[in-house]
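In the laboratory, one determines a bound structure by crystallizing the protein with its ligand and collecting diffraction data. In a computational setting the workflow is compressed into a single prediction: the sequence and the ligand go in, and a structural description comes out. We illustrate the idea with NAP.
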Amino acid sequence: MTARLIDGKALAASVRAGLKPRIEALAARGQRPGLAVILVGDDPASAVYVRNKVKACEENGIRSWFEHLPAQTSESELLARIAALNANPDVHGILVQLPLPKHLDAQKILETIAFDKDVDGLHATNAGLTLMGRPHFRSCTPYGVMKMLESIAYPLRGAHAVVLGRSNMVGKPMAMLLLAANATVTICHSATRDLASITRQADVLVAAVGKLKLVTADMVRPGAVVIDVGTNRTPDGKLAGDVDFDAVREVAGWISPVPGGVGPMTITMLLVNTVEAAERAAARSPSAIGRRPTEPHI
Ligand code: NAP
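The predicted complex, in structure-token form:
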């Protein structure tokens, strides 16, 4: 059997198309959604991610503010920038690109973002609400994976979902969203014994580790849905996931590729969260009509 492909790129395009009328409705009321992205330092991979996020905003009618701060930025300077963005009514979403330079306390920084502008879903309040099964902002990558499962109408109720990885950004919120959808969830991590015996029980397997070809064909139950979150470089420099794609696609029922799978969905769900933030802000202060927007900072 060759697995059917879950095409994240095509799904992302369709989700973005669905956002268009919502963005236009807000813009018509003078409340165009706005996302501020802060990058601290010169990590080349982060610079690419940030550029892609800003580009996605521009292509979809969302205003963006990009603040590139030097690597030696102090905690107090960064906190002051976030406080200013928290207070700016034109900014509906704030994203601080991770990882941060080592001298900055990432969790403290993330929790300075107003939780109702935390479109990355990483604030402790948003993580806690997701844990309680009433998410305010879902973390973008797991949210994208849930949309991918929804797109194939996968019946999660009672299914065994196995999540590889337990990070705050991906693994844990992924497990919580699957649990909320009534899957029976197992979370695996670096101390898990006999990983293959657990993955072979999965109806849905989500790999979010960051290890090239960690998931091999013998680890997958025939017909399972395999979603590959991992991003790795092959020895010849190509982007690849955690799953041995060519071998696993001969066993799985559905599989998402890397690139073209979870990646485009992650950015798309950031746009979705930003639009939701703007809609909530508009519902709170409908009087913003006609107010001049703040100049972008780029
Ligand atoms: P992370 O913080 O490094 O977490 C990796 C997780 O994998 C940890 O929980 C770790 O366990 C676990 N792990 C390590 N070795 C393992 C093994 N042999 N078996 C099972 N679990 C193992 O990474 P992350 O931020 O969650 O990201 C995971 C991957 O997804 C990375 O490749 C990242 O680049 C990618 N990613 C992609 C997107 C996208 O949009 N496509 C978005 C976010 C992340 P411990 O907790 O025990 O250390």
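The mean pLDDT is 95. Keep in mind that any predicted model is a hypothesis to be tested, not a measurement.
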